[in-house]
Specification:
The structure is a single chain. The chain has helices spanning about 15-20, 25-40, 55-75, 80-95, 100-105, 120-145, 150-155, 155-170, 180-190, and strands at about 40-45, 50. Helix 4 packs across helix 6 and helix 4 crosses helix 9 (about 180-190). Strands 1-2 form a two-stranded antiparallel ribbon. It is globular and about 50 Å long. It starts with 13 loop residues before the first helix and ends with a helix. By secondary structure, it is mainly alpha-helical.
Length: about 190
């Protein structure tokens, strides 16, 4: 599920998978891969690259069809917000390339099925952009000397400092938008709520 944005387009290396699933314990990542291998959803090459099997791709096709139906129903009354957001989010994904980390590089560009409605394209683009922020968060807590385990337990001023650094790092792609575009992006997202 976490690799749905990448697997229809490309294989995912071990480092990319580890970055996307960084909050899972290594044993849990190995177990999840083993389950998906046993179910015939994924293959893992000799170089540890994960690819979707025919069965896995069929599952992903069904998943994207479901996401298209749900986002279409959810946002059908807001077409004036969706179209501009698709374009702005596309620009943000391009602008995020230099500052994104391994999880973002794994998920970007996100898969956009041929003929996908704007609602699904927007959902997938926003999902990919989320990994830019995840990488920013990981950079902030590792830069402060934390591990996955210690960041989970962190609270108070130290946690707020990491969140502030995350926000600073995650803001980089938004510099590609002018003030009016940033306002349109923010108000467009609010209109979807």
């Amino acid at each position: 599920m976490e690799l749905r944005l990448a697997l229809p387009l490309r294989g995912v290396g071990a480092g990319g998978f580890a970055a996307v699933a960084r909050y899972l314990h290594e044993a849990d990542r190995r177990e999840e891969l083993a389950i998906q291998l046993d179910q015939g959803m994924l293959d893992i090459g000799d170089d540890a690259t994960i690819t979707a099997t025919t069965k896995g791709r069929a599952y992903l096709d069904d998943l994207f069809a479901l996401h298209a139906r749900v986002t279409g129903r959810t946002w059908e009354s807001r077409p004036a917000a969706v179209g501009p957001l698709v374009a702005l989010t596309g620009r943000l994904l391009e602008a995020a390339r230099p500052s994104g980390g391994a999880a973002f590089a794994t998920q970007n560009p996100p898969y956009e099925p041929p003929g996908a409605p704007d609602e699904l394209v927007l959902f997938n683009r926003l999902s990919a952009l989320r990994y830019h922020r995840a990488d920013a968060h990981a950079a902030a807590w590792t830069g402060a000397g934390h591990s996955v385990a210690s960041i989970r337990a962190l609270d108070g001023p130290a946690r707020r400092a990491i969140e502030a650094e995350t926000n600073r790092l995650a803001a980089a792609p938004f510099a590609a938008l002018d003030d009016d575009e940033r306002t349109a992006f923010s108000s467009g997202l609010a209109a979807l709520a």
